[in-house]
User: Fold these one by one.
Assistant:
Number 1:
Amino acid sequence: MLDSQRGDPLPAKRGFRRRRLTAAPLATAALVTLAACSQTASGSTDSKAKDSSPSQSGVGAGSRQAESVGFAVSPLMDSKDVIPGEPLTVKAKDGRLESVSVTTGEGQALGGTLASDGASWTSSRSTEYGTTYTLVARFTDPEGNKKTGKQTVTTLDKDKIFVGTYNVDKGQKVGIALPVSIVFNKPIHDKAAVERKLSVTASPAVEGAWNWLKDRDGKDRIDYRPKEYWKPGTKVKFTMDLVGVENGDLVGTQKREIDFTIGKSVVSTVDVVKKTLTLSENGRIVKSLPVSTGKKTFETWNGTMVVLSKVPSIRMDSSTVGIFGPEAYDMKSVKWDVQLTPSGTYAHAAPWNEGKFGRTNASHGCIGMSTADARWFFGRVNYGDPVTVVKSTDTVAVNNGYGAWNTDWEKWKKGSALA
């Protein structure tokens, strides 16, 4: 398989996992099933960040209070704009809510449920972006007087919000090399303001640091890694509170708290000269496998990569990484695939190279092995485990997956906007 290493003329679609940090419910990205691995001969480049010129509509209209009301609306930002993509909540300031109706400017109703104690009302579905809602609430004040309050609120436009994706889930167990990584959908103009609202804490405590970089598609990204690999069993808490954070003309709305755990130490080392892959668990060598790595001009990336995903079977098409002509191929079902970079580096079964494992490097950049060995390796490694290639040529880029471990610690710390 091919991993378009330098230049990446047409990189394979990525399968490594991130979670969107929107105000709406989160969903894990699906694994792709089209890939190729290739190493070519020119230098890796970052694509330019796309300019997102935000629309001016929808923000500033704010909440317009038509008359004195005895209720409060949330989630509200700066007492004017409502955060979209969340259920709308109305709470009684004093007294008891009797009924609440919410409609859009087009007259569409936003249904909801009134709490049994009359303290609050919550919509049954989330609000839309850039939409004006009129609320009419009937309530009883503390003196027993029946009153009606009316209020108009407007949700933020999608063009005015910056959001991110993150790569860990609540309660997840991950490998010892996984950094916390966030990719933002729009340029981050005030990196210091954003970084101040991010934190990672661990038990036992670790020394760690954030570092800003560009993702492979040019988007702003920030990664947090400890100085050394996480210790197995470490409890980690990642928090992000960007509600109201200004980023040029954009504003943040996310507030998340994610707890995850570090699993056992599973470390793999690939020696391209010896043509072996050696796997250790908790410091003890478990097994050494004969492999075949990248041939000349398609050498496997040197340095530490991190397991991004696992797929039992995948199609590998060299055209997805710009490989055509005599080196081209299209294999419909390659087995036991462990993804190491979004550009297409995998460890996988390569029965077509039988007889070359441990003897000749004959791949287009991937780490090939027998079907039995690939299945064994597939079953031993997990998301976040490190795979280090030694004695090869060019080192994998920091943004080609999670290449943070190939950067000197002092240099890494300088990538923080608060350094």
Number 2:
Amino acid sequence: MTPGANPLDASAPAEVPAIPEHLVILLLEGGQRFLAKAEESIRHRESMARDHHVKKVLAILQELHRCLNHEGGGALAASLSRMYDWWMREIQEAAAQDDEHRLRVVSSQMGDIRKTWEHVLFRGEGMSEAPES
């Protein structure tokens, strides 16, 4: 490499790769935790705390959405994109109406998707389930 050359120019990929499955699992798990905290805030009539937790889960969903590989992911990426969009709208509406049930539905769906990612990830290691944490 010549002096003064940018080391990233020659080796940087043209596109940032999709986020690793482990990170997807962790983000979905975090989203579920923030939804549970938002539900608790609704029960205790703590609107500021509810809004804080809702903002956190929305940020997680935005990150998941941003990292989708639309070119290589095909129909799966398109389906996940629509689901993330629906989750964001559902969470915002549920928070505005203090509707714990709707937050639980989204959390349950997040859990189902997380379990699917865990199955895909750990199946390759000969495991039928993710290890206990």
